[in-house]
Amino acid sequence: MRQSSFLCIATVGTLTATLTIIALFALVIINLQALTGRWSEDVQVRAYLEKPVRNAQADQLRKRLGSIDGVDEVEFVSREKAYSRMRQRLENADLLDGLSPEVLPVSFDISLASELRSREGVLELLPRIKAVLPNADLRYGQQWLERFESFVQMIYAAATVLGGFLLFATLFIVSNTIRLTLYARKDELEIMALVGATPFFIKAPFLLEGAAQGALGGGLSLGTVYLLYQAFFREGLGSLLFSIGGYEIHFLPASHQLAILGAGVLLGLFGSLSSLRKFVKIG
Amino acid sequence: MNTEAMIRLYDISKHYRSDSAALANIDLRIDKGEFVYLTGASGAGKSTLLKLLFCAERPDKGQILIKGRNITRLKSREVPYLRRTIGVVFQDYKLMNSRTIFENVAFPLEVQGKRRIEVGKKVYQALKEVGLEERMSRYPLELSGGEQQRIAIARALVVGPDILLADEPTGNLDINVTLEIMELFKKANARGTTVVLATHSQEMIQRFPRRVLTLEGGALVRDESC
Ligand SMILES: Nc1ncnc2c1ncn2[C@@H]1O[C@H](COP(=O)(O)OP(=O)(O)O)[C@@H](O)[C@H]1O
Ligand SMILES: [Mg+2]
Asked: Which CATH topology does A44-139 take?
C-alpha cells in the first residue's frame, strides 16, 4: 500500500511546514504569557491616604488591612519614610533639597497573598481595601502590564486565526495529495470492493499511512522548532527577556509537544478520510 | 426435479437517465446449478443486470432475491458479505498489475481474513484448476490475455462462490482461447456453481448450448431453454 515517494514527501512536507509555524506561534505566545504571569506576580497595592494620620491611627488601619482575606503584609509608609525612599531611588538627590517631606503623601504598601498575585487577584482585592480606606487613592502600578497583556492577547488571537486558516489549508492540501494517490490506485480499490473487502479493510492501510505521515510531520516540525529555539530564540529573544524580566525562555512543554504530534496525526487521518470517502464506495 | 431458486428478479427496472430504461420490468428465475447465457446487442442491458446482482448498481423498482434473501435494500456495510458469495469475471480481467498472480488469487481470501495456510492451499488448488499453478510468482502483465482471464476466473472461484457472473469474459479473446475459458466455466458449473454468462457470441452458445436469456433495449424478450 505504498504511495509514490513524491506524494509522500509532499504530504509530509506540507504537514511539517504548517505544524512548524503553529509550534513557533505557540512557543512565542507561551513564553510571553509566562513572562506576563511572572511580572504580574510582583503586583502590590499602594494606598495613598488623603491626609496624614497619627501613628496610633496608622497602626490601627494597618492591622485592619492586614486582617483582610488575601492580604499578605502591610507596611505603613510615613512621610519621612517616603522621603528617604525617594532619596535612595534618585541618584541626583540634590533635586530634593528644596523639598520637605511635608508635601509627600503617606501610604500603605499592601502585598498580596500568593494566590492573588495577578491582575485578576488585585481587582478582586481592591473593593475590600476600599472598604477599609474609602478615600484612599489605590494604585497598583501595573496599568502598563494590562496593556502588555492585551497586546499578548491580540497576538494570541491573530495566531489562532492564522493557525486555524493554516490547518484548514493543510487539510485541503493533504486530502488532495492523498486523493492523487487514491486516483492512481482506483482500479485496485475497485477490485478490493469487488471481491468483498469491507470499507474498513480498504481504508485502514491508507488511514494508517496518513496517520504515520502526520506523526512524522509533527515530529519533524518539533525538531525544526527546537533547532530554531536553540539557534535563535535563546540567544536573541531569550537574552532580551532575561535582561528585562529576569525571565528565562523555555521550550514548548510536553503537553504542547504532544498536541502538535496529535494535530499531525489528526490532519493525516482526516486528510485521508475525506478523500477515501469519495473513492471507496460500496454499493 | 426439485429445484431451488438461486436468483429471482421481480419486476426489475433500472434507469441511468430519466428518458431511457437500461432495464425494464424484468421477471426472472435462475435455479441453483443452472448455466445461463445473457445475450443481446450492445447496450441491451446485460452488464446492468449483472451489476444489480452484486449490488454495484441498485434497481429503481422491483425486488431481487439471492438464495431467498432480498438484496434490493441491502445496507452498504452488508454488501461486502454478499460479494463474498459471488465470483465476478470481466472482459478486462481486472487484475492488480502490481501484485503477483498468487497475491491476486489470494486477495479475496485475505479480505475474508482466512488463515495463511488455508490461503496457500486454496490458491494453489484454484490455480491448478485453471492450469496456471506454475505462474504464481509472475505478474499479470507478463501473461497472455487468455492466461490473465484464467487468473481472474481462479480468483472468482477460489472462495467457492454460489454464483459465478461473467460479463463478456471472452470478448477480447480468439476462438481457441474462448473455448478453453468455456471449459473452465463448464467445470465450475459441473461442481454446482450457478453460472450467468453475458455474451453476444452466438458461436459460444452454439458450441455449448444452454438456457439463453435475450435482452433488447432493457427488456427480456426471449427465454429459451434447451
Ligand atoms: N453508468 C452508466 N451511466 C449512464 N448510462 C449507462 C451506464 N451504464 C450503462 N448505461 C446505459 O444503459 C444501457 C445498458 O447498458 P449496459 O448494461 O452496459 O448494456 P450491455 O452490457 O448489454 O452492453 C445503455 O444504454 C448504456 O448506455
Ligand atoms: Mg456490457
From this structure: Alpha-Beta Plaits (3.30.70)
